[in-house]
Amino acid sequence: MNASDSIVIIPTYNERENIEKIIKAVFGLEKCFHILIIDDGSPDGTAGIVKGLMAQQEYADRLFIIERSGKQGLGTAYITGFKWALERDYQYIFEMDADFSHDPNDLPRLYSACADEGYDVAIGSRYVSGVNVVNWPIGRVLMSYFASKYVRVVTGFKVHDTTAGFKCYKRRVLQTIELDKIRFKGYGFQIEMKFTAYKIGFKIKEVPVIFVNRREGVSKMSGGIFGEAFFGVMRLRWDGWTRKYPKIG
Asked: Strand 167-170 relative to strand 92-95: parallel, antiparallel, unpaired?
């Protein structure tokens, strides 16, 4: 029995080149993490690879999958995963990409920020100590960096990497945030979740990480994803003035 207090949620769409390697990398860590894959109907057989691993004794009871029909958006994938984790006894819930842009070796550092240092949310931050991005085209680096700057200016939210998708939440954060009221589906989702946690009053720490552009597979980034984030920030600023946020229990 491989018991764990932590679940790593990994959304996938056409990640057959990466999925087995990322799963084995997480399971190779000294600390035991469980993994939940949320696959949006990948036509390349990603889900089949995961289910093949699940059938092996060494992965039993620590590797799980939810299969959804078609691409439904990053945000809805994570909300599905959060609800699944909250129905079980996980105390620390992680977000992570499948393509090794997030280094599995940083998972224990995010865990320690919450479990040992007392923070409620730990963010794997590309920008808290400079610009720690490898192999991204300069245009994309600038777009991402200034998107986070833009969020800080408009909302007054002091996190440096507001669009980061590498995070650890304490269980009580996701229990308190009204998940069904989270509106954004793309990278605006990442901003909205952090901003909501901040407005509720949870303690947030940025843990510096190095983000490495994927070596295999195809990026899912698009102008529409950044567009949602860009225009959605104005709405978040309005919410910050007018919305009544839940209280920490």
From this structure: antiparallel
pLDDT of residue 154: 75
Distance between CA 66 and CA 69 in Å, rounded? 10
Residue with tokens 């994927």: 214
Q: What is the pTM of this model?
A: 0.87
CA distances from 25 to 18, 125, 218, 221 (A): 11, 20, 20, 24
Task: Tell me the H-state helices in the chain.
Answer: 19-27, 46-54, 74-86, 107-115, 138-155, 171-176, 187-200, 223-242
Query: 66 has which bridge partners?
Result: 38
The residue type of 192 is E
Q: What is the pLDDT of residues 8-65, one digit of tens each?
A: 999 999 999 999 999 999 999 999 999 999 999 999 999 999 999 999 999 989 999 9
Backbone φ, ψ for residue 206 (5° rounding)? -95, 120
- Distance between CA atoms of residues 241 and 141, nearest Å: 31
| Residue that is written with structure tokens 């899912």 in the block | 220
